[in-house]
Amino acid sequence: MRLKISLLKEPKHQELVSCVGWTTAEELYSCSDDHQIVKWNLLTSETTQIVKLPDDIYPIDLHWFPKSLGIKKQTQAESFVLTSSDGKFHLISKLGRVEKSVEAHCGAVLAGRWNYEGTALVTVGEDGQIKIWSKTGMLRSTLAQQGAPVYSVAWGPDSEKVLYTAGKQLIIKPLQPNARILQWKAHDGIILKVDWNSVNDLILSAGEDCKYKVWDSYGRPLYNSQPHEHPITSVAWAPDGELFAVGSFHTLRLCDKTGWSYALEKPNTGSIFNIAWSVDGTQIAGACGNGHVVFAHVVEQRWEWKNFQITLTKRRTMQVRNVLNDAVDLLEFRDRVIKASLNYAHLVVSTSLQCYVFSTKNWNTPLIFDLKEGTVSLILQAERHFLLVDGGGIYLYSYEGRFISSPKFPGMRTDILNAQTVSLSNDTIAIKDKTDEKIIFLFEASTGKPLGDGKLLSHKNEISEIALDQKGLTNDRKIAFIDKNRDLYITSVKRFGKEEQIIKLGTMVHTLAWSDTCNILCGLQDTRFTVWYYPNTVYVDRDILPKTLYERDARWDLRT
């Protein structure tokens, strides 16, 4: 995986660019110290000045109002908040009209962010205050007061908590009064930027100690980078939480969620003060200190299954390589590739407008159908069908392109679903509830209706990852899950008695997966790679279970 950088010869802004924000996958707005707001159209390569701000307004941060399904007033959805050095934030329409300016802080307003529902706005400033506002700009509360400037802020995935910087510390404060505050020392220098992803629930931070770090939502460190030559001035998660980008002086880096660096580019940009991902997660824009706006496309992603290796060579081109005979096929698409999945002898590719289904036996004639909404955020495959998740819902299709079902439940938010919280088998769809994380919804794949009598799977603790087994009869279908204590459990999908029999298989399990060909379960358990050859043993005799395990030190491969 790498980044393909695009940078104009001459900058469109006369001063440093402070912030950027995408409206669609092909349209971007940028704000600069030259007081101009410029619209970029990537399809036509045109730039248009939207508005010139008064000379006393220096923009600092920009965030578009979220395009949620429940918004009836589309005029609100077509607007953004702009924070500025004069202590105000401004609500500005897409056409550049300043709808409202609000006196918010003493000193500059350093950051402003809408929550995921668009019902509240948080701002932070040089005065050390964190304030919550209504979507019309009315002050609701002053959440906290620090003795030093707060440089960055982010909402938690449930919009019930706010993460903000306090010098070298990171603080998570719930909106509810008297709720417990989480605070920890995160860097050896002032923290300049934070981001909290709604899908993987992980936190990014960057500071003047020239490091970027990844944390879980409990403040536990997951990754700590080596020191760079210059302070890290920007970090941003991709929407699906699989990748993140890091910006510094003449530096743009692409990493996966574990912190592993895939690409390092050194464009002539000065410091990159702000990074924004496009809504489909395929492009990055950076606000540069020398007046440029840098664009980068994520290319050379790879998918593998048995003897096939598929590489995204360009935005609209894939290369298929059969490693057995070195045969190579090129797949051309009309639009930019957004998501892809390769499994069960089928390649499923979603572009901004269509879905392509290829069989590994014939790469020349794909099945093609139009998508209801362009931005597919997740593709899951089972042997008989596949699942697409976009901003509008969850859709199950056969490999012949026939629509099968679309499961729904109250309060469903498709923007936060990922491969750990949704699972698919030939007969069942399992989805973890976000409003109550102790519950798993179970649906019949063929109808999209809840299993049996509206069956829910309820656990005593919050659940973090779920997985359905893939083989066997419907009545024998099992689901394995890991809870927040890192305990692994297994239970039947169909309940034949009054009691749900949820049985613990192991402790300190970090991730799990079922085999595609038989119901063997594997997982990383503490420092060991563990395979449960026959997990159903726990229903017969728990004493036999240890005899069905295969264990190997997971650190062994690193030493050899």
TrEMBL record:
Residues 300-554 form the IFT80 second beta-propeller domain. InterPro entries: Beta-prop_IFT80_2nd, WD40/YVTN_repeat-like_dom_sf, WD40_repeat_dom_sf, WD40_rpt. Pfam families: Beta-prop_IFT80_2nd, WD40. Keywords: WD repeat. It comes from the Eukaryota. WD repeats lie at residues 102-134, 184-216. This is Intraflagellar transport protein 80 homolog isoform X1. It comes from Erinaceus europaeus. The lineage of its organism: Eukaryota, Metazoa, Chordata, Craniata, Vertebrata.
